Amino acid sequence: MAKTERDLLRAEFVSRAGWGDAGERLLAGDASFRKYFRLSRPRGSAVVMDAPPPQEDVRPFVQIARHLIGLGLSAPEILAEDVEHGFLLLEDFGDDTYARVLKAGGDEGELYSRATDVLVALYRAGERSLMPGLGAYAGEALIEAALLLPEWYLPEATGRPTPPEETARYVAAWRECLAALPATTETLLLRDYHKDNLLWLPARPGVKACGLLDFQDAQRGHPSYDLVSLIEDARRDVAPAVHAACLDRYIGEAGIADAAGFRTGFALMAAQRHARIIGVFVRLLRRDGKPDYLQYLPRVWRMFERSLEHEALMPLRAWVDRLLPPELRRIGADT
Fold it and tell me: Rounded to whole angstroms, how far apart are CA atoms 315 and 173?
C-alpha cells in the first residue's frame, strides 16, 4: 500500500527520535482523529500517538501527562515530541487494558478499587492537582455538553428537529437541577476515565498499578465526575456490588464529610454524562458514519433513567418523560 503524506511525516519523526530501526504496527484508533502505533525492536518498545492538526493538539496531553507523573501517578513518559505535526513517542504500557484484563477474568473488585484509589489520590492532592489555566467543567459548561441530547438524540428518535422552546426548557431544567448541587472542593477531572483508557500494571505499587491514558481533555470540576465515568461505563456493566463498593470507598478514603451531598453530586454528574453520551453516540452515527456505538445506547439509557430517580433531578426527569417517553428510548436496542 502506498504511503500517505502522514505516514511519511510519522516515519521522519520516528527516525529523529532514534527508533527508525523499529517495526511498526497499528494499535488502535478511537472516536477522535488520533491513531496509535506500536514500535518494536529487540531492546524494547514504544508507542506513537499520531494526532493530526488542526483536528487534534498534543500539547494538553504532554502537559497533563507530566503533571500526573509529578503527582505520583502512572501516565506515559513522553520520550519525544513533535507538537507542530502532532506526534508523540510514549512509554509503552503494554496491552493489558482494563477492558482486556476484565474480559480474561481479571478481578473486577481489585481493578476498580485501584482505579478508585487514583481518583482519591487526586482529591487528596487538593490544589496541587489543579494545573494553571484548566477550564472548569461546571455550571453552563455542563449544560452545554448535555445539549447533545436534544440536539442529536431527540431529532433521531422523533424524526423532526427539536423545537427551540423545548431546548430552552431543557436548559432551564438543568439550571434548576444544578442549583441543588451541594458545594464541594473541585478536583482534576481526567474526563474519559473508563476501562478502555486504563492499563493494569500490577508490578507497580499502589495507585501506580493503574496506568492512565486519554486525559488530554482534563478540566476541573466536581470530584464525582470521573468516578461516574469509571463505574457507570457506557460500554460495560459494572457489578452492582462493585459499583456500591467504589462509591463507598471514595467517600471513605477521600474523607468526604458530606456523604449525602457527594451522592447528590454523583447523581447529577451521572445524568449529565449519560445525557451527553446518548447524544454523542447518535452524532457519531449521523455526522461521522460510525454506527457501532449504538449498541451501547440501551445501557446508557438504563443508567440515565436510574440517575433521574434522584430527587435533585426531578425537573430534568419531567422534561425527559414528556419529550422522550419509553417508546422513544429504543434506538440501538435491536442492534
Answer: 5
- How far apart are alpha carbons 305 and 241 in whole angstroms? 19
50 forms bridges with which residues in the sheet? 35, 87
Peptide bond connecting 155 to the previous residue in cis, omega within 30 degrees of 0: no
C-alpha cell at 97: 487494558
Residue 104 CB contacts under 8 Å (≥ 6 apart), including other chains: none
Cite the DSSP H helix spans in the chain. Answer: 5-16, 59-70, 98-103, 108-124, 140-146, 148, 154-158, 164-178, 225-231, 240-254, 259-286, 297-307, 314-323
pTM value is 0.93
Model confidence over 216-250: pLDDT tens digits? Answer: 999 999 999 999 999 999 999 999 999 999 999 99
Whole-number Cα distances in Å, 206 to 100, 117, 194: 21, 8, 18
Classify burial at 268, counting beta carbons within 10 Å of its beta carbon; exposed 0-12, middle 13-18, buried 19 or more. Answer: buried
Tell me what the mean pLDDT of segment 259-278 comes to. 98
Q: How far apart are CA 111 and CA 202, in angstroms?
A: 10
Locate 33 and state its grid cell.
482523529
Question: Would the pLDDT of 33 be above 90?
Answer: no
The pLDDT tens digits for 68-111 are 999 999 999 999 999 999 999 999 999 999 999 999 999 999 99
Q: What single DSSP character describes residue 210?
A: E
